[in-house]
Amino acid sequence: MNRREAGGGRGLRRVAAATGGFVACVLVAALIAALVGSWGRDLRRAGAVAALLLAAAAFQLAGRRGYRVGELLAALVAAELLFAGVIAWYAGAPRVDRFFLSWCLGGNLYLAVPWLAGAALGAWLARRRSSRSPSGG
Prior knowledge:
By secondary structure, the chain is an all-alpha fold.
């Protein structure tokens, strides 16, 4: 078994860990919103907290932990599938209609955009740091 074949499980574990981190950020944001009394139909405060947590988590994973952007994108796809399932469960039927698209677009402004921004900024910082280090080439 060569190195590439042996490393396949590592990438899947990293995607699973990043997806777990994504879900944990959303759950912590929901818990904070519930504790401070801003839970209800207006989810903007919980969304803002989730956005900050997700951007920080993606930045940490890409910039400090050395996760590849592809792994973070795969985690985002997995989280998006979970999010679509939650919307479909809430709607009562798994169909793509105006309600689904509205919630999907609105939710992604608070979930996907900060995750992608944090991942991009973290990857940029890691690349910049490695190019400046004497051993980074």
